[in-house]
Structure formats: structure tokens, C-alpha cells
Write a structure and sequence with these properties.
This protein is of the alpha/beta class and 324 residues long. It has helices spanning 11-20, 29-32, 44-54, 69-77, 119-131, 141-169, 179-185, 192-201, 203-223, 227-242, 268-277, 304-316, and strands spanning 6-7, 25-26, 37-40, 60-63, 81-87, 108-112, 135-138, 255-263, 285-290, 295-303, 322-323. It folds into 3 domains: 6-139, 3-Layer(aba) Sandwich (Rossmann fold), CATH 3.40.50; 144-242, 6-phosphogluconate dehydrogenase C-terminal like domain (6-phosphogluconate dehydrogenase C-terminal fold, Orthogonal Bundle); 255-323, 2-Layer Sandwich (VC0802-like). Helices cover 47% and strands 17% of the residues. Bound molecules: nicotinamide-adenine-dinucleotide and prephenic acid (PRE). This is Prephenate dehydrogenase.
């Protein structure tokens, strides 16, 4: 039987989703109660409301919300066939126009089963996640929320705080900011109502994370004139940074990181990406390693066969390109 993807949202969102090919046709909550799989991708407070509106149903339901404990509890209280989910992918952008088919490729995707989760339901959702190109990772809902408090929610609060501190200096202070400030504050432009929802939902765990952060800042503050201990702190920070998980590339296809040193000039990123794209080389992940404002290295993650091809194409075009 042919698969059909239905969407439920405001009419203008559904119209755009059909135009982009994200859904086959608009639908209603009543109709999706009969679906094989329902993915709830609304703000957290709306997801709780949707769980209530969908009950009772035998459909397998999952969600993508950034916090898990409250939603999983609500679904279980309603006796729904539910497996909580949370993709560690996305951006500060929102709305269907920013949807991308490759958004989840290589990303970690948390699933939060509990002792009440039907193993068959878990297998089905896990299979769905793998079909999106993501890597399912099981974790208990409470542990998930504790981890996210530090790894996602605290950085969003920090971005808001940094932007406020700089804006308070003087009206033009922000216009003088360099790459470090920009890197640290990107998520400060995230959707305000979505983030108000996420932060309120995870307030207890976030309180702990904020306390730990305030303690760490106070400690650093007390040591800033002690060069030895500052050096040790930055050495520790550097080692922790090296251990950061980035995009998870599917281990079935071996991958290689290629560093491409470039000058900071208009169009340089487009030159590299167009060269690779026009030779059918897919960039699995990309980040910029800054050294100063004149030069930087583009670090490209490619599958190993593509990396060899990319290296010779880049050399022929006058770029350096060395595996890391
Ligand atoms: N943006 C990210 O980076 C990211 C990453 C992982 C998880 N999430 C989670 O994904 C969820 C959605 O976030 P987003 O960034 O995609 O937001 P978004 O604003 O892009 O999309 C949310 C959509 O939900 C719709 N909606 C709101 N109430 C609804 C209802 N009652 N019924 C049907 N549709 C409704 C909105 O009209 C909108 O189209 C949130 O729970 C968020 O925590 C976001
Ligand atoms: O990259 C970003 O802009 C994000 O905010 C993505 C991000 C995060 O890493 O914190 C934000 C919220 C989601 O729940 C998952 C991922």
C-alpha cells in the first residue's frame, strides 16, 4: 500500500508544506488518530494538548520536543502507544520554510523509553529514526532533561545574557563584536516563544545547571590573575572541547575530516562547496576553525572515498586540503 504523509497545522503552514513536498496533503487530528505513526512536532505545551486531543487512539505516537519527562508522563497516563523522541539537530531558525530533507542525517536522536514502553513500538520508532539518517540513542527521560539543561538550555540562556551585557555597554557596542562573540551568541536569535516554553518546562534541572555555571564563573573570576591556574583551566577546557560530539556520521560509511585553509574573502566558502557539489561530493558536516580574522580553516567531514577525490580536486584548484 502506498504511504501517505498527512499534516495538521494552520492552513498557511500546510499550504507551504505541500508546496515544499514535506507532506502529501492537509489533514485533521480526527483522521490522524487512524495513522500508523504520528509525529508531534509542535511547541512543548502544544504537544501536551495534542496528546489529550488524540486520546483515545491505537496509533503509534512519537514527538520531537526538547524536554521529555513531562510529555512522556502525560502520554503514559493516557495509555497511549508512545515513544518520546528528541533529535539533536536543528538551528535558531523556525517555520516550515526552514525544513530540510537532510536535517537529521548523521545526528544523534534521543529516544526515551521507560519500563512501560512496548518494545515493538520502540523498534518501530527506532527504525523510523534510522530511515531519516539519524542515530537513535536510548536514554531515560529524566536523565535526558538533566543532560539537556547543561548541553542545550544553559547555552541558550548564556547567549541571551551575553547579548544583554554587551547591549547594556552602549547602543553601538554590538556592532564591534568579532567571531568569538558571534559564535557564542548565535542561538540568542532563536524563536522566543519556543524557548520560553522549553526553559519553563525544564526549570528544575536548569536551576541546577545554572548553579553549577555560576560556581564555575565565580571560581574562574577568583583566579584570573593567577596565570598558572588560568593556563591549567584553559588546558582542561581545550581537552573537554576536543571530546565534544559533533555530527555523528553513520559508521557503515567510513568518514574523514579534511581541513581546507582559506583566506577570509568574499565567496571563498561558495568556491569550495560549489567545486565539491558540482563533482557530486556530499559534505556530511562542515565547521570553520578560526585562527584570526584573515585566515581560517574549513573542516569538512566527507565519506572517505569522497575525501580522496575532494583532496585532489581542491589541490588542482589551488587550495590546501589535508586530512585531520
Ligand atoms: N528548532 C530546533 O532546533 C529544535 C531541535 C530539536 C527539537 N525541537 C523541538 O521541536 C518542536 C518544534 O520546534 P520547531 O523549531 O520546529 O518550531 P516551529 O515553530 O518551526 O514549528 C512548530 C509548528 O507547530 C505548529 N503548531 C503549534 N501548535 C500546534 C497545534 N496545536 N497543532 C498543530 N500544529 C501546531 C506551528 O504552527 C508550527 O508550524 C519543539 O517542541 C522543539 O522543542 C526543536
Ligand atoms: O543549533 C542550534 O541552533 C540549536 O539550538 C539546536 C539545539 C541545541 O543544540 O541546543 C536546540 C534545541 C534542540 O532541542 C536541539 C538542538
Amino acid at each position: 500500500m502506498a504511504r501517505e504523509i498527512l499534516g495538521v497545522d494552520r492552513p498557511e503552514v500546510l499550504e507551504e508544506a505541500v508546496r515544499l513536498g514535506a507532506i502529501d496533503r492537509p489533514s485533521t487530528l480526527k483522521e490522524v488518530r487512524e495513522a500508523d505513526l504520528v509525529v508531534l512536532a509542535a511547541p512543548i505545551s502544544r504537544i501536551r494538548e495534542l496528546l489529550r486531543k488524540l486520546s483515545p487512539t491505537r496509533a503509534l505516537i512519537t514527538d520531537v520536543a526538547s524536554t521529555k519527562t513531562g510529555i512522556v508522563r502525560e502520554a503514559e497516563q493516557r495509555g497511549l502507544r508512545f515513544v518520546g523522541g528528541h533529535p539533536m539537530a536543528g538551528s535558531q531558525l523556525s517555520g516550515v520554510t526552514n525544513a530540510r530533507p537532510d536535517l537529521f542525517r548523521g545526528a544523534r536522536y534521543f529516544l526515551t523509553p521507560t519500563e512501560h514502553t512496548d518494545p515493538e513500538a520502540y523498534r518501530e520508532v527506532s527504525h523510523f529514526v534510522q530511515r531519516l539518517g539519524a542515530i537513535p540513542t536510548a536514554v531515560a527521560p529524566e536523565k535526558h532533561d538533566l543532560l539537556m539543561a547543561t548541553l542545550s538550555h544553559l547555552p541558550h540562556l548564556m547567549a541571551a545574557a551575553l547579548l544583554k551585557v554587551a547591549s547594556d555597554i552602549s547602543p553601538e557596542a554590538l556592532s564591534f563584536a568579532g567571531p568569538a562573540f558571534r559564535d557564542l551568541t548565535r542561538v540568542g536569535s532563536s524563536n522566543p516563544s519556543l524557548w520560553a516554553d522549553i526553559l519553563a518546562e525544564n526549570a528544575p534541572a536548569l536551576g541546577e545547571a545554572l548553579g553549577a555555571f555560576a560556581g564555575a564563573m565565580a571560581q574562574l573570576g577568583s583566579e584570573i590573575q593567577d596565570r598558572k591556574s588560568m593556563e591549567r583551566r584553559f588546558q582542561e577546557a581545550r581537552e573537554a572541547y576536543e571530546a565534544l560530539g559533533g555530527i555523528l556520521v553513520d559508521k557503515r560509511g567510513e568518514s574523514t575530516e579534511l581541513a581546507v585553509p582559506v583566506e577570509n574573502r568574499p565567496g571563498v566558502l561558495a568556491e569550495v562547496t560549489t567545486l565539491l557539489g558540482s563533482n557530486s561530493i556530499n559534505i556530511l558536516d562542515l565547521y570553520v576553525r578560526h585562527s584570526n580574522t584573515e585566515r581560517a580553516a574549513l573542516v569538512l567531514t566527507l565519506n572517505s572515498e569522497d575525501a580522496r577525490k575532494a583532496q585532489s580536486l581542491l589541490h588542482a584548484a589551488g587550495f590546501g586540503a589535508e586530512p585531520l
